[in-house]
Amino acid sequence: MAGRRVECLWKRHVVEQLKQRDRVQRQAFEEIIHQYNRLLEKSDLQVVFSERLQTEKYEQQNRHDLRCSWENFLHHVIELNNQIQQKDKEIQSNEAKMLEYQQQISRLEGECRELRNSLADLERANQTLRDEYDALQITFSALEEKLRKTTEDNQELVTRWMAEKAQEANKLNAENEKDSRRRQAKLQKELADAAKEPLPIDPDDDIEVLSEDAGKGTGETSPSRQTSRAPSRRVSQPPPPAGLLDSISNIFGRRRSANSFGSSPESAEVPSACADVRVPSTALHVFDAHDGEVNAVRFSPGSRLLATGGMDRRVKLWEVVSGRCEPKGALTGSNAGITSIEFDSAGSYLLAASNDFASRIWTVDDYRLRVSISLKTQLSFSGMKTVFAGSSCNDIVCTEQCVMSGHFDKKVRFWDIRAESIVHELELLGRITSLDLNHDRTELLSCSRDDLVKIIDLRSNAVRQTFNAQGFKCGSDFTRVTFSPDGSYVAAGSADGVLYIWNVLTGKLDKTLDKGHSSAINSVSWSPSGAYVASVEKGSKAVLWSDM
């Protein structure tokens, strides 16, 4: 206890001494400490001021940077605003385009639906047509077989019919021969009786003695010889009793002379000499030629007669007098419409083909039907033989050694008469409707359904010249065109009733004549004298043209 007290005393003494020293020494440093504290305070204040200044400087710098940044920001915002406006415009434009595209898509989807529906309808229709085609194919096969049988039956009937026609022709020839013999015997008897009676003879009378050969013609006397007695009876002599085709070949050979059998020099028509071809410019005579369609027209070799053939089954003869066609007579006996006409070289006989697959020959002076045979649709006066053409024949022309035929299969075929075979074929662009030869038989004129008229050089068998014109149109599969007699012009009728004439030398259209016809022109013929052109139409009219 006493130790603890002693320890506490010295500790207290030490503390008091320390306090005393502290009081003594603190007074000496108290002012310094006070000044130091002031300096510290001032230093702290300076630091505060410095920090404040730094802060203000930094804030000013920040404000400047902020202002610059803000200006940049504003500028950027303005640019962005402009871009936003531009984008808004683009968005609006794109939205409009999208709306338009959506409308187009909707329309296309509708069209697609319609096309799908149409495709479905077409597929159904196609299936129906396939079914119908299959049915028609079966029907066609049956009809084809029936046609084959019918064709065979028809061929047999035609053969029988031709045989009957040949018998009828032989009977007709026999009857004509008997009639001619009876008339000749009667005439001889009358002449013998007249010779027994004495007749006073006036020396001034000019008495004509008729020979037997003269009686074989028409019986007409020459206009330059007059008789003092009554005119003798006209006697028509039939062909000699030879074979039918031999008689026809002898009578209608292309080299037939003017005084060949069946026509006398007095009755034969002298072919016209073409001194000057006139290009027609006027319709001299428009007349009703037939009851219905007129298919064919042809001048006689002397240009005195004009023959027309029509669907009324008649061939009519017209005499050309002073620019008019006066009716002279009609040739009857055809069982169908006339399709083609041709005179023989002397103008004494007329050959006509008809739609009943027969051809008939009449004598011009007495209008009598002499021969009726079953041949092709087109005939010419030449030796007659039957050949297989390979296609439907629309027209033919002949020379001494060659036959030229125009066909439905667009080909012109050249046949050697001696070899009876095709030597050349020329294919055109349309079905051949007509053929014609020029005067020296070196050029062939053709008309086809492609509305072209062409000249074929027979020396090279190639097309040399082509004629066409605006408005010209071939009216049918049997439209006939023609050369002028000297071969310097080509005449053709159009479907609109206009007559076209081309100049062969220049190749240009020379003239169009449109006042005369009211329907398609079927056929044209140029008179051998060159003075007239005749044309016929699908109506009932014929027109005689010239430049007078």
UniProtKB/TrEMBL annotation:
PROSITE patterns (alphabetical): WD_REPEATS_1 (PS00678), WD_REPEATS_2 (PS50082), WD_REPEATS_REGION (PS50294)
Acidic residues: compositionally biased ranges: 202-211
Lipid bilayer topology: Peripheral membrane protein
Domain Autophagy-related protein: residue ranges: 75-173
InterPro entries for this protein: ATG16, Autophagy-rel_prot_16_dom, WD40/YVTN_repeat-like_dom_sf, WD40_PAC1, WD40_repeat_CS, WD40_repeat_dom_sf, WD40_rpt
Gene3D superfamilies given in the database record: 1.20.5.170, YVTN repeat-like/Quinoprotein amine dehydrogenase
Location of this chain's protein in the cell: Cytoplasm; Preautophagosomal structure membrane
Protein name as catalogued: APG16-like 1
Segments for region (Disordered): 169-247
Record-level Gene Ontology MF annotations: identical protein binding; protein-membrane adaptor activity
Biological process according to GO: microautophagy; protein localization to phagophore assembly site; protein transport
Ranges of biased composition (kind: Polar residues): 219-230
Organism per entry: Sinocyclocheilus rhinocerous
Upper lineage: Eukaryota, Metazoa, Chordata, Craniata, Vertebrata
Biased composition (Basic and acidic residues): 169-196
Similarity-based family: Belongs to the WD repeat ATG16 family.
Keywords: Autophagy, Coiled coil, Cytoplasm, Membrane, Protein transport, Repeat, Transport, WD repeat
Keyword set includes Cell cycle: no
